[in-house]
Specification:
- The protein has helices spanning about 5-20, 25-40, 70-85, 90-95, 100-105, 140-155; strands at about 20, 50-55, 55-60, 120-125, 125-135.
- It is α+β, with helices and mostly antiparallel strands.
- The chain is globular.
């Protein structure tokens, strides 16, 4: 096991345990998505943002500099969250902590799955009801932006 990756994984899993909601509605998705878009616009970040409730895309925004490629990355990251029940970054880090590579050892179609940071499950009382994602920055920055917005949204609720 790689100690740095294992410590990072524990941090990521703790984020998932703490960034949970008592309820999450379409209105919450709009407020969270708008918060994410505002954070990104204030920093002139070239990102695409999406929020899913179940299989329905309930929020989407593309900022200047983002492209359809970023939408594709979001779909691939969301596929990882759906399959594994954890953030896309946590899944990638978990593979690395075992000394293996998601792209090789998951045996999944890489045109459909990407274990790169930026997609985060939306938990209501321990159950996943959707996902929020950002694509366009280095993966740790994508993940950090989502976590920042989730924390701010929870604090304002």
């Amino acid at each position: 096991m790689h100690t740095d990756d294992l410590a990072h994984l524990q941090t990521l899993l703790e984020q998932e345990r703490t960034l949970q909601f008592d309820a999450f509605s379409h209105d919450d998705a709009w407020m969270l998505g708008t918060r994410l878009r505002t954070l990104a616009a204030e920093q002139t970040l070239p990102v695409a943002i999406a929020i899913m409730l179940g299989d329905q895309r309930v929020f989407h925004a593309g900022l200047a500099g983002a492209s359809a490629d970023n939408d594709g990355w979001l779909e691939r990251k969301f596929a990882v969250v759906r399959r594994y029940g954890h953030s896309s970054l946590a899944v990638g880090v978990e593979f690395r902590s075992r000394g293996v590579d998601f792209d090789v050892d998951s045996r999944l179609d890489l045109t459909r799955f990407a274990a790169h940071g930026g997609a985060f499950p939306l938990f209501v009382r321990g159950s996943i009801v959707g996902m929020v994602g950002v694509s366009g920055l280095p993966q740790l920055d994508d993940h950090a932006l989502v976590v920042e917005a989730l924390g701010a949204h929870l604090a304002s609720a």
